[in-house]
User: Fold this.
Amino acid sequence: MPENMEPEILEIPSLPLVVGVSTRAMFDLEEEHAVFEKEGVRAYAKLQLEREKQPLKPGSAFEVVRRLLALNEGSFGFEPPWIAQSWRPLGS
Assistant:
């Protein structure tokens, strides 16, 4: 680089990082998925209703998401994650 030229500094816009994570990656739903695959949607829905008050176990993406959210701790402008509700009750 010639001596009289300053290196170009790129301005990076401050945009939020958007990450999409499926429920099966966020939580360990292997048993529930097996019921869905083997017994169908009604058995799956029944199992989910029976367990609705039990917390889900963390899945493979849980720790990654926890650490990404930790990057925002103490920063201004933090917005909590949005959780998409793409499910529909049976019969709708």
